[in-house]
Amino acid sequence: MARYEAISGKSVGAENLWMGETHVPPSTNSANHHHGHSETAIYVVSGNPSFVFLEEETEEHPAREVRIDTRPGDYVFVPPWVPHREENPDPETEAVVVIARTTQEAIVVNLPDLSWVGPVRTNAGRPPVAGPGDAPA
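RE: above sequence
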């Protein structure tokens, strides 16, 4: 995978934002990993990359991998500490995505699997977020 920096502290003086482009060759998978305390937003420019996460075990089903298969124009949000894997299953076409993250450093912590390893994130101390059709309080 090739990453190209566009907006950063180095390029424009940004303090809390890094943005760039990643090119994922055909038939390529990343390792299982997380990005520490960094939030990551992804915009799919071309190709059909997949993002793989682990859905925790419940009474209804065992733990299982969940794939988010994308196409150009899709957005994906990866919260802090969430283990995941990027894949480009297409044997012929490169995938190109724009990445925005909330840290200047590229935090990548490789993992043996997709099991959760980070702190628990909650909405404690913040008001709930209204969904579509919810009336304001």
